[in-house]
TrEMBL record:
Positions annotated to bind a divalent metal cation: D26, E27, D125
Protein name per its UniProtKB record: Ribonuclease
Gene Ontology terms describing biological process: DNA replication, removal of RNA primer; mismatch repair
Domain annotation RNase H type-2: ranges: 20-215
Function: Endonuclease that specifically degrades the RNA of RNA-DNA hybrids.
Family the entry assigns: Belongs to the RNase HII family.
Known EC number: 3.1.26.4
Cellular localisation: Cytoplasm
Source organism, top-level taxon: Bacteria
Length: 215
């Protein structure tokens, strides 16, 4: 089966309707047992031009290919940012609220870098707008199922966020090697779950998802 390639069709339609900027948005780490949930955002305008060759939804790329594409994607877009919510915040607030919190933090980083948020539409992967409930002033958000597969701006955000979060989990692996985070990136692989049962969770685990006390 041929792999669906992203395009700029959705973004260009928004530009044709008078939108100045599109902010592609995707989350990473939603289903992980450990580590933050991260939200990537990538801003483009009508002059974005051709996106990097091979850009895809991060889930469709090998780790090596993601590593190569992340800096190219960051160079292609006008601005990019990754916002996070910690495992402790996921425990306290729930995953949906933390998606919004991480997204809000990404928007603040974009604003600080000079992005015109008010003149943008956020193109959000999925069917649920989890971003606006976290904001004091609502933004124009367009949800789209499989936007990370179909829309180049969202694919760029996906790759940038995935590589950013992966680097954090690889670094955390050095302190907690028995959980295998360099390989599983905090997701619930059998080896990871077995290590939790043997050693107990750490401060980086989402304890409410495990139902045991951290060590």
């Amino acid at each position: 089966m041929a792999v669906q390639l992203p395009t700029l069709e959705v973004e260009n339609e928004l530009f044709a309707n008078g939108i100045r900027y599109v902010i592609g948005c995707d989350e990473v780490g939603r289903g992980a047992m450990a580590g933050p949930v991260s939200v990537g955002m990538a801003v483009i305008d009508a002059g974005a031009g051709a996106f990097p060759d091979g850009l895809r939804d991060s889930k469709l790329l090998s780790e090596k290919r993601r590593e190569a594409l992340a800096p190219l994607a960051a160079d292609w877009v006008l601005y990019s940012a990754v916002g996070e919510a910690s495992a402790a915040e996921v425990d306290a607030l729930g995953i949906t609220a933390c998606l919004g919190l991480a997204g809000k933090r990404a928007l603040l980083a974009l604003h600080a870098a000079g992005a015109d948020i008010a003149a943008s539409v956020v193109l959000l992967d999925g069917s649920q707008d989890w971003l606006n409930p976290a904001l004091a002033s609502p933004l124009r958000v367009q949800t789209r199922i499989k936007a990370d597969r179909d829309c180049a701006s969202v694919a760029a955000a996906s790759v940038i966020a995935k590589v950013h979060r992966d680097h954090q989990m690889i670094a955390a692996h050095e302190e907690h090697p028995h959980f295998g985070w360099a390989g599983n990136k905090g997701y619930g692989s059998p080896a990871h779950m077995g290590a939790i049962a043997e050693h107990g969770p750490t401060e980086l685990h989402r304890v409410s998802w495990i139902k045991t006390e951290p060590r």
